[in-house]
Amino acid sequence: MPGVYMGDSDTFDYSLRKFKKQVEKAGILSELKKRQHFEKPSIQKKKKEAAAKKRLLKKIRKLQVM
Questions:
Q1: Angle between helical axes of 28-35 and 12-26 (0-180°, round to 10)
Q2: Considering the domain boundaries, does residue 3 fall inside one?
Q3: Can you supply one Gene Ontology CC term for this chain's record (predicted)?
């Protein structure tokens, strides 16, 4: 669980930015968005396959440019 300890010299804005980075790094917001609505396992599988295909095409395009 992300958490930030504020020192005497730390400003609130600095601490807030630090906390937001920790939350983003932990993937809490993406997990929350994913769990907002129930998704059937078959749709999850289709999305996962589409993402894998997209990554593969991007990798191929990147290799062709070089």
A1: 60
A2: no
A3: ribosome
> Is residue 17 included in any domain, yes or no?
yes
Q: Tokens at residue 36, please?
A: 């907002």
Provide the whole-model pTM: 0.55
Which region, left, alpha or beta, applies to residue 27 given φ > 0 means left and ψ of -120 to 50 means alpha?
left
Q: Is the pLDDT of residue 8 over 90?
A: no
Task: Say if 5 falls within a structural domain.
Answer: no
Domain encompassing residue 32:
12-65
The total domain count for the chain is 1
43-58 confidence digits (pLDDT tens): 999 999 999 999 999 9
Nearest of 12, 35, 33 to residue 24 by alpha carbon: 33
CA distances for 18 relative to 4, 8, 22, 30, 48, angstroms: 7, 15, 6, 18, 31
- Helix (H) / strand (E) element for 1: namely none
